[in-house]
Amino acid sequence: MMFKRFGKTYVVIGLAEDWQYPARKKKITIADVAEYFAHQACNMTSGMRCLAGIYGDWRMIDYIAQDCLAYFKQANVEGMRRAARKLGLEPRF
Question: Rounded CA gap, 33 and 18, in Å?
C-alpha cells in the first residue's frame, strides 16, 4: 500500500470514492492499529470491521491494518509495543 504521508506515529492513506463519500484521505495512528488488533481482528461473527473510522468488508480493512502494522514495526517498534500492551495484547515482535 502506498501511504500519502507517514511519520513515526501515523500514516495517511488515500481512500477511493464510494457510494457515501468522495475520495478522501484518512489518518491512522499507532493507537488505531493496536485497537483494531485488540478488538476488531478477533471478531469472527461479523463481516464488517472498522479501523480509525474506516468501515468496510473485513478483508479490505484487515489488509490496511496489516500494512500499517508492518510499517509501524519498522518505523517505531517500541511505540507499537507500548500501544499494544496498553490494550492488553502481548506483542511478539
Answer: 23
Q: Convert the pLDDT of each residue in 70-91 to its tens digit.
A: 999 999 999 999 999 999 999 8
Per the listing, cell 474506516 goes with 54
Total residues belonging to the chain: 93
| 8 A C-beta contact, residue 58 and residue 49 | yes
The pTM assigned to this predicted structure is: 0.87
Q: What is 17-79 written as a DSSP string?
A: --SSS-SEEEEEEHHHHHHIIIIITT--S-SEEEETTEEEEHHHHHHHHHHHHHHHHHH-HHH
Closest CA to 53 of 73, 35, 41, 77: 35
Helix (H, G, I), strand (E, B) or coil at 13: strand
